[in-house]
Design brief:
heterodimer, A: 265 residues, alpha/beta, 9-stranded mixed sheet, two-stranded antiparallel sheet, 11 strands, 29% helix, B: 710 residues, mainly alpha, 4-stranded parallel sheet, elongated
């Protein structure tokens, strides 16, 4: 029994290595000097796929919707061990909303034979929409916030899900299905420059709208039914205060505040 | 009256002695040769290692560390004992050869040792054998009654250690006794007959035996003589052939381990010897994953380790309960090699080392402080092995989550903190500092003689930026024409290399080398010992590199830097040697000279100082690693300073500062102990040039006052 797994990934600004600031127009973040990496949740999904394939056999394909710059994360995941990387790239895809992305991915899924489709639970700059919509469009069963996966036979998986308040539930789910993977499900392996260099010569095929058979009107900015109208840092709420100064000063002030309110004795 | 019958002439059962001994000698030597050949099998399967260069330097090392036993006296008791036994053995080698030959040919004499010379040699060896015999007794008593803590063996490795040691020791004792018996029985025989007899050194073992045997009958003495010869021969070969099964093999292998010892200790071995960096991509697997990935020299080290425990006794990781003990790193590898390359039976593939005999945490626990290597009497290498094992784990993607983020940030941002490149020079931005000192960024047309290489932690860490500013002010004060790389500087990669991420290290290094060469500077100064070590030893084709403590010490001598007296005369200072300044680069005196040049500064030494300094907890990526430990190294270090009676710890490394300042809080010594960097202290005490007159006059005034007050 083998499993063919597709992992949908996305390239995002790395929140731990960037100072995120709003741009002057106030409709996006300042994107000069940003460094990007794979969305953290997606990285856990790829690791989970690799571990499943290591046990059960099969192949892992990583796919992303984006531009030439996004190939970098496909190569990183291929260096981790993914067998194939595919870039879905077309001018008409630009400005897609969550539904548009799901539409593009659905078209790609239908070109192949996948037993299992994984997405990250959410993207650092997204809204946790794509996994669920993709499942619905494919008419596949869907489980979100998955924290453990066990391959049983060729027909079902046993999965664990994180429930609010720290509880966990176990489910059986029929294949093929879509799972959105929560962080902490595993410990993703390290990939360095050497690994990426070793897969540098592997081909990463690109598919456009025509190859996928996606109607231009259904995706991209024109097809988007959700549009960003504003982007800003929320104003300070009542009673909120930003501490300023050096790290030491901030810590000292914070301690004083906590003490003053009786939190520390 | 008849002369004593020599073993060569005598009949042993049905065989003439000469024939019997020839057979025994050949068998013994052949068997030993077979065992040694088997022991060498893994070495032949090991990786290449470039150890055939610089023969004169290597012979010098042999003279100092092998024949001269240079490191032994670092442990007084055990060292003295070892020196005596070793010296005895060296003297007794010719003696053993003579005894052998006498079994084949009556009256054999080593050329050059006849007549007077032979008499003197005889006396010397009599005493040597006696001394060795006595030392063996002391060693046995010590093993049985006063076992030092460093010989302790954790439960999972519990083997008959003491029994084995005592067996070996008693074999040596038996050999010495047989030798004395051989001489004594002959002398007693000859004395009884009034024949001329070889002089036995007074109070030697042989001399005492002779005294005790004078009254025995002639046939008994004759039999004792012939019997002790056989005993000598058998003990000798038993000892010879038993040695390769345990730690005593070091008697043979140490000669080679020391000759082939690593000469360039400050840098890390290449990924594969004989493979240039351009061809590294063709290497299938990096580092050490299975036993055969070790180099032959590293395998030889495993044989040479005498299990003396000095490495682990000095290992800070071991001291704070991390799952690492250099002694067992070696020992487990030796046991692995004995098991999978047995003397009797076929060699077989063993499991991978990580998960097999080593745990991941064990290998990540090392701070590469070098205390183990400093101590090892046989110059066994540990850091290269640790780094090679880490390279193997990195190659397999087997890296703790805590290290993955900083490694990724180093790749994308050039620093482990994930801070923006353009903010690398922000430490120079505070207004008061900019008024006091100009720090130009060497870009475009901006040129300078000297580059101040700041490195990541001093550039980005709020607290450590003060060290950067102090360093800049000192350079400015002594009139140095200097600048920094600013955004063009990336992390030196010192710990990146030592954590086994060689590819990333090379990328960082290549970037920095290019950036530095573009500036055309004539020399480099840094206040970070890790950067210092990287620039000086890991990088190639760099201009001369200095640590700021060397600059300060020089300018104190030149008179450019003068210090005002310390304000609080009650403060007691102690200097903590950073590993990469001290042990790895032997800069021990410059920082101390600087401290001693500050008037009124009272300085004491901790027990563990200079080359026995105790690591603060490690720098670079080690700050991100979450070790399993009972206690922090820094806390132990701060307590050592407190015990010595100091209340100010001076160090010369930003990582030491992080660890020590944290440790002061953790140890609950806040208010009782402070830490300061040498550069900060020097800058603070420096008599300013501007506004020159005012301050100089003020200082001169206070000095006069204090002088008058005394």
């Amino acid at each position: 029994m083998t499993v063919e797994i597709l992992v949908c990934v996305r390239r995002v600004p790395d929140t731990s290595e960037n100072e995120i600031a709003l741009n002057r127009e106030g409709n996006d973040i300042e994107r000069d000097d940003l460094v990007y990496s794979i969305n953290e949740w997606d990285n856990y999904a790829v690791e989970e796929a690799l571990q499943m394939v290591a046990k059960a056999g099969g192949n892992v394909t990583v796919v992303t919707v984006g531009g030439d710059d996004d190939e970098e994360i496909l190569r990183r995941e291929m260096a981790m061990g993914a067998n194939h990387g595919v870039l879905l790239c077309d001018d008409t895809f630009e400005g897609s909303d969550g539904r548009g992305i799901a539409t593009i991915l659905k078209a790609f899924v239908q070109k192949g034979q996948y037993d299992l489709i994984l997405t990250g639970a959410q993207a650092e700059d997204g809204g946790a929409q794509v996994g669920g919509m993709l499942a619905a469009m494919l008419d596949y069963p869907f489980a979100s916030l998955v924290t453990s996966v066990e391959v049983r036979d060729g027909k079902t998986l046993k999965i664990g899900r994180e429930i609010e308040a720290g509880n966990k539930e176990m489910n059986e789910i029929d294949l093929p299905c879509v799972l959105s993977i929560q962080t902490g499900i595993n410990e993703p392996r390290y990939v360095g420059m050497r690994g990426i260099r070793q897969v540098a010569s592997l081909p990463v095929p690109t598919y456009g709208a025509t190859e996928l058979g996606v109607e231009a009107g259904a995706v991209g900015g024109s097809g988007a039914k959700v549009k960003r109208v504003d982007y800003f840092a929320p104003p300070l709420g009542k009673g909120a205060r930003m501490l300023e100064g050096s790290q030491e000063e901030i810590i000292d002030e914070l301690l004083e505040l906590v003490k003053a309110k009786g939190g520390l004795k | 009256m008849h002369p004593i019958q020599e073993p060569a002439q005598a009949n042993y059962w049905l065989m003439q002695g000469r024939t019997l001994f020839l057979i025994l000698d050949v068998l013994g030597v052949a068997f030993f040769g077979f065992i040694v050949a088997k022991r060498m099998t893994p070495l032949l399967r090991g990786q290449k290692d470039a150890r055939w260069d610089r023969p004169w330097t290597r012979l010098g090392m042999l003279g100092k560390f092998w024949l001269g036993q240079w490191k032994q006296p670092r442990y007084r008791g055990a060292g003295t004992l070892h020196l005596l036994i070793f010296g005895g053995f060296i003297l007794l080698v010719t003696r053993a050869f003579t005894v052998f030959m006498q079994g084949l040919s009556v009256n054999f004499v080593v050329p050059g040792l006849s007549g007077e010379a032979g008499r003197i040699y005889g006396i010397v060896t009599d005493y040597a054998a006696t001394v060795v015999f006595l030392c063996i007794i002391v060693a046995i008593i010590r093993r049985l009654l006063f076992l030092p803590a460093r010989y302790e063996v954790p439960l999972e490795h519990r083997k008959a250690d003491t029994a084995d040691a005592i067996f070996l020791l008693s074999q040596i004792g038996a050999l010495m006794a047989a030798d004395a018996l051989l001489e004594a029985s002959k002398a007693a025989f000859q004395t009884q007959q009034g024949q001329p007899t070889e002089f036995l050194a007074v109070l030697s073992l042989a001399w005492m035996f002779k005294g005790a045997m004078l009254s025995l009958s002639l046939p008994t003495l004759q039999n004792l003589y012939l019997g002790s010869y056989v005993l000598y021969l058998l003990t000798f070969f038993l000892l010879l052939c038993y040695r390769p099964f345990g730690i005593e093999f070091h008697v043979e292998t140490s000669l080679f381990s020391v000759y082939f010892a690593k000469l360039d200790r400050q840098t890390i071995k290449p990924v594969r010897w004989g493979v240039s960096e351009e061809h590294l991509d063709e290497v299938k697997s990096f580092g050490v994953k299975k036993f055969e990935d070790f180099t032959w020299k590293h395998m030889l080290d495993f044989y040479s380790c005498a299990d003396c425990g000095r490495c682990s006794d000095n290992c800070p990781a071991h001291a704070v309960g991390r799952p690492l003990s250099p002694r067992f790193l070696t020992r487990k590898a030796r046991e692995y090699s004995f098991q999978h390359y047995p003397v009797f039976g076929r060699a077989g593939e063993g499991p991978n080392l990580i998960g097999g005999i080593y745990s991941e945490d064990e290998i990540w626990s090392c701070t590469t402080c070098g205390a183990c290597e400093e101590e090892c009497p046989l110059l066994i290498e540990y850091i290269d092995k640790i780094v090679d094992l880490r390279r193997g784990m990195i190659d397999d993607g087997n890296v703790p989550q805590s290290l993955q983020k900083p490694l990724k940030a180093l790749e994308s941002r050039g620093n482990a903190y994930g801070k923006m490149e353009k903010k690398r020079a922000d430490w120079t931005k505070p207004k008061e500092f900019q008024l006091a000192c100009k720090v130009p960024v060497l870009e475009g047309e901006q040129r300078a003689d000297t580059l101040y290489f700041v490195d990541s932690i001093t550039s980005y860490d709020d607290r450590m930026q003060a060290i950067g500013r102090a360093t800049a002010k000192i350079l400015d004060h002594v009139g140095e024409n200097f600048g920094i790389l600013g955004a063009a500087e990336k992390d030196s990669g010192h710990e990146v290399r030592r954590f086994g991420e060689e590819t990333l290290f090379q990328a960082l290094r290549d970037h920095n080398v290019e950036a530095i060469q573009a500036t055309g500077v004539k020399r480099i100064v840094t206040a970070d010992p890790h950067a210092y070590n990287a620039l000086k030893h890991d990088y190639k084709n760099m201009p001369p590199v200095e640590h700021i403590s060397q600059v300060i010490a020089r300018e104190v001598k030149s008179g450019k830097i003068q210090f005002r007296p310390v304000e609080n005369k009650n403060d007691v200072y102690t200097y903590h040697d950073p590993c990469y300044l001290g042990r790895h680069n032997q800069i021990y005196d410059d920082p101390r000279e600087v401290l001693d040049a500050i008037p009124g500064l009272k300085r004491i030494e901790m027990d563990r100082s200079r080359d026995r300094s105790f690591c603060c907890g490690g720098g670079g990526l080690m700050l991100f690693y979450e070790p399993k430990e009972d206690q922090r190294m820094g806390v132990k270090r701060v307590q050592m300073a407190a015990e010595a009676g100091a209340n100010v710890m001076v160090t010369a490394c930003p990582f030491c500062m992080v660890n020590i300042e944290d440790a002061i809080k953790v140890a609950g010594l806040e208010g009782k102990m402070t830490a300061i960097d040498l550069a900060e202290l020097a800058e603070q005490q420096m008599v300013r040039k501007t506004p020159a007159t005012v301050e100089a006059v003020e200082v001169a005034g206070t000095q006069e006052e204090s002088a008058g007050g005394r």
